[in-house]
Write a sequence for this structure.
């Protein structure tokens, strides 16, 4: 009985280490990303996964339309948004400069 426990214990410790160092943080990041994508709204300044900066002018369940300059509007999948900086954050950053 003790010998079997000693054989299983290292594998159990490796699994616990993998869970806390790899699986759990990845699940947390995925949850935060899903929440960020669901909280998108018009006027948010965003960066796409391709590095394109723009402001959301229209959005639906699947698509986001970004205004990148006065004459250009591009349509992306919602999942193509990498990060968000709301208008309040941008104003705070600009006033700090």
């Amino acid at each position: 009985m003790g010998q079997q426990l000693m054989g299983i214990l290292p594998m159990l410790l490796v699994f616990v280490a993998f869970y806390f160092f790899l699986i759990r943080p990845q699940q947390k990041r995925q949850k935060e990303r899903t929440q960020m994508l669901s909280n998108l709204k018009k006027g948010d300044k965003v960066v796409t996964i391709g590095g394109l900066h723009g402001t959301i002018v229209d959005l639906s369940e699947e698509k986001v339309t970004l205004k990148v300059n006065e004459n250009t509007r591009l349509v992306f999948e919602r999942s193509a948004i990498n990060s968000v900086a709301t208008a309040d954050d941008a104003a705070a950053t600009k006033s700090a400069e």
Summary: The mean pLDDT is 87. Strands lie at 45-48, 53-59, 63-67, 73-77, 81-85. Residues 63 and 79 are 9 Å apart (CA to CA). The two ends are 67 Å apart (CA to CA).
